[in-house]
Design goal:
By secondary structure, this protein is α+β, with helices and mostly antiparallel strands. Helix content is 34%, strand content 23%. It has a single domain, classed as Ribosomal Protein S5, domain 2 (2-Layer Sandwich). The protein has 4 helices and 5 strands; from the N terminus they run E-E-E-E-H-H-E-H-H. A 5-stranded mixed β-sheet has the order 1-2-5-3-4. A hairpin with a 2-residue loop joins strand 3 and strand 4. Helix 2 packs parallel to helix 3.
Length: 128
Amino acid sequence: MEVVNALGRRKAAIARVYVKEGSGKILINKREFETYFPSPILQYVVRQPLNKLGVSEQYDITINLKGGGYKGQSEAARLGIARALVKINPEDKSALRSEGFMTRDPREVERKKPGRPKARKRFQFSKR
């Protein structure tokens, strides 16, 4: 099997995911998965599509992550992994979609407007 690649995005984070047959090793930005995401919750989020299909020990995954924070990066990696698994086996798409792993979360930070302190916040109004 050749390398299958996919892209995952969330907020400002972009994950380029490369999946090939192997022993279940995950590398993120040339670092070990457990050192890049020390929190067990974020590790769980990244592994969700693999655990759902029961293939966590079948593929080696390399991920290039940039932008965003750790939460957005973990969810971008999850989307990228799910998309790559569907490229490998299209029958898995319905199982991953039912868990919500195939849906790109479109929420982005709203831009700051001129004449205001933040995007929607306004300066205090003074009547007199």
